[in-house]
Model the fold of this input.
Amino acid sequence: MIRPSPAAVQRTLHSRRRPLRALAFTVGFTALALNGASALAYEAVLAEQPVAVSAQASRITSPSEAFGHEVGADYHLVNYTQWEAYLKTLAGQSDRMKLVEIGQSSEGRTQYIAIVSTPENLANLDRYQEIARRLAKAEGVSEEQARAMSAEGKAVVWIDGGLHSTETVPPQALIAAVHEWLTAEDPEALRVLNDTIILFAPLNPDGMELVSNWYMRNEDPLKREFASIPVLYQKYVGHDNNRDYYLSAMAETTNVNRQFFREWFPQIIYNHHQTAPAGTVVFMPPFRDPFNYNYDPLVMGTLSEVGAAMHSRLIEEGKPGSTMRSGASYSTWNNGMERSITYFHNAVGLLTEITGHPTPSQISLIPQNQLARNDLPMPVAPQTWHFAQSIEYSQSINRAVLNYASRNKDRLLFNIWRMGQNAIDKGNTDTWRITPTGVEALVEAAGENANGRRGVDPTLYEKVLRDPARRDPRGYVIPADQADLPNAVAFLNSLIKTGVDVDRATRAFTVGGKTYPAGSYVVKTAQAYRPHVLDMFEPQDHPHDLQYPGGPPALPYDATGYTLALQMGVKFDRILDGFEAPTERVADVMAPPPGKIEGTGRAGWLIDHAPVNGYILSNRLLKAGVAVYWQEGETRAGRATLAPGALWIPASDAARPIVEAAVRDLGLNAHAAARAPGGDRIALKPVRVGLVDRYGGSMASGWTRWMLEQFEYPFEVVYPQRLDAGDLAKDFDVLVFASDMIPSDLSAAAQDADDRQPAPEAIPAEYRGWLGNITAEKTVPQIDAFVRGGGSVVTIGSSHRLATALGAPVQDVLRGADGKAPASTDFFIPGAILRTEVDNRQPLAFGAPAQMDVFFNRNTGFRRAGEAGSIVRYPEQVAVSSGWAIGPQKLSGSDAVLDLPHGEGRVIVLGPDVVNRAQARSSVRLLFNALFYGPAVSAED
Done:
C-alpha cells in the first residue's frame, strides 16, 4: 500500500505546477492544425525523433511499485484504500493531474475525480470549465460566441469505472488508465492531453473495498471469489445504483450528477461495465432501438461516430470480439442509467460491457457468433481469457474515445451548444414530438392506404401529427397550494440535481386564466436540458416492440414508463402557450418551505394526512412517547375540512417542540385546536418493524430500507433463520416483504435446487446467521403463527405469493383455472405506470388522492372475497399513464390492495411496487399507512 508522506498530503491533493516541455507544446498545437492523414504522418515523424521522454515517467510511481503486482495480474484485486492512497501519491508526483474531492459515499469514503491534462490546461481549468458550462447551458450564447469558445475550449471527457463493483475489470482498468495518461509520451497521447481535459472517476468506493477485500481474503489464489459477498455492493441499492440517475437519491449518484450537469458538463461520458455477451469480448455502442424521441438526434449521430471509432480501433489493433446493437439488449430508451441520462442532457453517453475476471475465465464457443456480421465484424475464437487482456482492451477503447475527442474537439464543444440552443428554440415555439401513438393515429387516419408503397395523403401530417391539442408544453407550473408541497419540492430537487433550471414565483401570477400563489414553481422547456424536463413530466410513449409481427414482445432493457412527476404524485399544470411569470431562479436544492400553525387553541394540533412528511412527524412523536391519532372521518380545522386520516396530536410539553419543528423544517401545516375533535379515531403505537432480507442482499429490500430510514421508521433487518426460529411477536409488530423476497415456488426442494449461498464454513462467522431461505415447510408456519397471534404482514409486489401460502383468500386475476399465467402476447407490462381508483376514506389509503398512479412491473391484480369494498383498484377501463402495456384490460376492476384479517392479525397485500427504487413517493404512503394501521388495529382488538 502506498502511504503518502505528510508533505504530500499538505499539498491539498493538487499537483505541482511545472512547465510543459517545448516538444509537447509544439506537438499539441501543430497537430491541432492538422487532420486526417497529415496529422498521422506528422505524428509518425515525431515518433521517430530521439526525444527525452523518461523525465515524466521516471518520477511517477508505477502500479507494480505501489501494489506489488501489475494491474490486471491474475488472482489480484486492488482495494479502494490502496487506490485512494495511490491517487494521492500520483497527485503529488505529476504535473498532469489534479485530484479533486467530489463528495462522500454512503459509508463515508471520499469520492474523487482525477483531472488529467497538460500543465498549461490545468493552470487554466477555471476558464475551460466556464467554457464547457456556457456551451452546455447555451443560454445567452450566440452562434458566433459558441464557435469562438469551441475553438478556445477543451473537450471534456469523463471516464469512470467500478459502478458495479463485482464487475472488477472497470475499476482496475481505471488505475491503469490514470497511470498511462500521466506517463504517456507518444505523439497521440500528447495531442490528446493538449486537446482534452480527462476526468477519471472511481464510482463506488464502498463496493470496491468490499469486493476486493472479499476476493483477496483467501491466501490460496485458486479459492478466491466474490460471488459470495454477504451484502449488496453499494449500500441500500447494489446494482440499482445505475438506475438512480434521474431521481439522484443516493449520495454517490448526487456527487456524480453534480459533476455532469452543474460543474464540468462533459461532452462525452464513458461508463465502463461488464460482462460481455457470451462468445464475445466486449459490447460497445451503438445500441439497439427503441430510440427515445425526447432527445436531440445529434446525440445519436455523434454516439454512432464514437462507437465506430471504438470498434475500428480494436480491429486495427487485431483485437477481435467486439459486438454492437443486436449483440445485446442495451437500448437508449430509459433515462435512469448513468450513460443514458446524458442523452437527455445533449452529451454522448458510452457504455461498454467487457468480459474478464481476476480468476482466468473462458470465452465460450457460440456457433452463431463465429460468423462475422455488421453487429459482430470480427469474431473471437474460444479461449482461456486473462484479466490483463481485459485491461488492455479497456485501454485501447479509452484511446479510441480520447482520440475521437481530440480530433473532434471543436465539433463536440460546438454541437453541445447547438443541441442546447435547439432545445431553447423549441421551448419558445410550438413544437410536436412524434411518438408511437401519433404514428398509430396517422396510420388509422390513412386507413387502407397506410401500408401502400407510395405513402399516404401528405395533408395528414399537419392534420394528425400537428394537431394543436398535441403540441408540446412551453413549461410547467407547480402550484404552491397543493396538498403536499414538500413532496413537490423533493421532485424539483431531483431536477435541480440533474441541472434543470427551476424558478420560483415572487408573487401571485395568472396563466391561462388560472391564478397561482406566490411561492409556486415554474419549469420552462426553453432551456438546454429540455429533453430531460419533458421526460420527467410527460408520459413515456413506448413503441409496441415485438420480436416479429404478431410475435411476443421484445424484452425492454428496463422500465418502459417511469415519469417521475407521476410516480411522486406531483400536481402540475402543462402550459401549452408562451407565458411569463414573476420568478427568481432557484440556486440549489431546497428545503421545504416552512409551514405554519393556524389558530390559537391549546388542546392540540390537527394536521392533514396528505403530506408524506407527516410520517416523519408521527415517528418522532411516538419515539418521544407522545400520543398520535388518526381521525377516521372528516374533521373540521378552523374554516377547512380535513379528509379522513387527519393527525390529532393532543397538546403536551413534549409534543409542542416536535410539532413546531415539523412545521418549520418539514413544511407541514398545523391547526391549533381549542378542543379535541369528535368522531372515531385510531390510536397509533410505536411499531417494531422487521424488514426481511436475504444473504447477499435484496435490492428491493434495500430501497425499502432507505425509505424507512428517510421517514424515520424504527426497524430491524430480519433473515430467514430468525423467521424460522419463531416467537416473532417477541421482537416485531409487523414484517415487511419487499417485492423480490418471495419466489414462485416456496418449497424447500425448489429453494435447495436454486440455492447459490455459500457453505457456512466458507464465510466469516458474523455472516452465517444471514444464510437460509424462506420455505413453505419451515418459515411459513412461523409467519402464520405470528399473524394469527396478532402480528401484521405487509407484502409488496410479487411477494403477494406469501399471502397465498398463508392460506389468505387471494385470487390472482391473471391466473387461469390451471394456475398458469397468460402468455406475453396476451399480457405484458414490463415496468409501466397505471392509474388506480382509491377509496381514501379507508385507513390504508388515508392521504392518497382519489386517483393515484402506481408502478406496475410484472405484478398482478386480485379478486377479493367477502363484502368488503375496494381500497385501491384498477378501473374498468384500465388506464396506462406512462409506458407500454399489452392486455392491460385483464386487470379491469381488480383490486390492487388487499386488507385481509388472519386470526388476530392482518395480511396486507400491496400489489404494485409501491416503493420502486424510492421513486414512488405517491404510493409509498400505502406502505407507511400499513406499518401503523396493522399494529394499531391489532392493539385495539
Remarks:
- Confidence is low (pLDDT under 50) at residues 1-54.
- The CA atoms of residues 616 and 670 lie 14 Å apart.
- The longest strand covers residues 830-838.
- Residues 387-407 form the longest helix (21 residues).
